[in-house]
Amino acid sequence: MNDPSSLTPSWFDTTFMGHGHCYLWRSDLVILHTASDVLIAASYFTIPVALYVLVHKRKDLEYDWMFVLFALFIFCCGLTHLMAVYNVWNGAYYVSGSLKALTAVVSLLTAALIWPLIPKAVALPRPAELQAANHELEAEISRRSLSEQSLERTQVELKGRIEELTRTKARLEQEIEQRARLEKQQQEQTQALKRSNEELEQFAFIASHDLREPLRKLMAFTQMLMSGKYGAFNEKGEQFVSYIREAAERMDALLNSLLSYSRISSSREHHEDVDLAQIVDEACRDLQLRIEETGASIQVEDLCRVHGDPAQLRQLIQNLLSNSLKYCAPGTAPFIRIEAHLNEPRGVVM
């Protein structure tokens, strides 16, 4: 009777005959089968490595677990072919059968899971659709880039305008501050001018009062001398007395003008048509003695009539003549030429 222990399989039992006996140990058959199985096993071991590298590098792949099952299935197939090479010389058929059983389980699991996956795989975008989507995405990126560039230009322009507005604001603030300062200065100058006018008016009143009294006496005494009660004058003396009287009258007019000018707040200058020739003649008579002392020659051209204040014009011309007589070269008789002509934009030029 057989030993009961023989009923229990030994996984590494090598008492079985190898497949080489079936090949009658013909070298051509042995080489054909063993070489083919070795190459198949080598290929089956390489494919899982390639699938692992793909899954490792493309972590965004959909259904990556299916790639793992395929790799395991192919690896098991490679083990069965490698075991077939071993069994050519050794009869380890329990190990070979176990590897085939493992391969069968993995194959059934892979087959069971791949069929439900087919509709999902079919629903994945086709390459043409992906390419169209990529083109649309590239166009959208291009439009977005153009929009961003336009936005950047707008931001630069806006920044420039903000800087310009900031500079304008600062300039306006400076102008406002300067204008406020000028207005304050103007107010101060106005107050100072007002005080000066008040002082001038007060001075004019005092000067007019203090100077008018001796002027009245001078005019009175001149009138008495011209009456002839105190002796007669020769022609030259009468001329000089006449000069004194005219000078006193003009002095009285100057005092009145000074008083009128000081009252700026309550009166205006008196303007009228004035004969410049008469004004020049009166100024020359006032300076007659100085003209004779310097030996000056005065040539008066045809003068026109102007509109102005007679007293101020007389004072102006008299000052000009006086300066001309005063500031001449020593030992030289001055020559003064007086002329006037109309100049529409500027009035009268002398």
Automatic annotation (TrEMBL):
Instruction: Please name the SMART domains in this protein's record.
Output: HisKA
Example of a GO biological process term: osmosensory signaling via phosphorelay pathway
Q: Does the keyword Transmembrane apply?
A: yes
By its UniProt entry, which CDD domains does this protein fall under? HisKA
Write down the top EC class of this protein: transferase
Which GO terms fall under molecular function for this chain's record?
phosphorelay response regulator activity; phosphorelay sensor kinase activity; protein kinase activator activity
Q: What is this protein called?
A: histidine kinase
> What is the species listed in this Swiss-Prot or TrEMBL entry?
Marinobacter similis
